[in-house]
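[step 3/7] fold_predict: job queued, chain A
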Amino acid sequence: MNDPLNRWSEQHALLMSLGIGGALLEKSTLLVAAMAAGSFFGLLIRGRGRFTESGRFGLANGITLAWVLGAVGLLLVADANPGWLAGLVALLVGAKGLAGWAAQGCGLGSAFSRLFEQEGDAFLLLVACLLLFSSGRFGGWILLPGALPYGFMLLRQVARRPLSAAWGDYSSRTLGVMATLGFAACLLPVMPASAALWLALAISSALAGSFVYALAFLYRSKRA
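[step 4/7] structure written:
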């Protein structure tokens, strides 16, 4: 539990959880943007020399850094045209896929790059939820899906499970990507409010189901 990346992941989950609470109270995305930027900068500091197997930062990590910064930037312009915001979220999801391709194609994967990408996924999902909250079309409940990955990490810490037990296997991450795109669609002005509400509820329910399943697996493996 003393691994720097493991400690960062736990601290980041707590920080983001506090940021979500602040966003709910202040009805502003700026606090989360500042906290996320500082936290990811801390990850880069802690990961020095461990970015890739060779120690270099690498193309994949560079792409991940670019789209994480882009996600932070979206929170700074949360009051912009919703259609543009939806398109930018989709663009960042595409960049995420490019980062994964670069890591596999160039053989630059590492524990750091996997964690960086995984936490970037969770953050982009949270950003989509925050943008929906800022749009005024949804209540505070829309922040819950974005908080689930961080809640899982905190519960993993209580259960004293290793970092590898994080809520980040292929199926849950794929669901997260699809959920992010779905939430981006809910931002589109052309989507009727009722349709956006039902779509957001369906996505949130799917994420909640994935969370419960992962949590059950976590504690079942703990007892084993």
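[step 5/7] annotate
The chain has one domain: 4-223.
Helices lie at 4-26, 30-46, 59-76, 82-105, 111-135, 143-158, 170-187, 193-223.
exit 0
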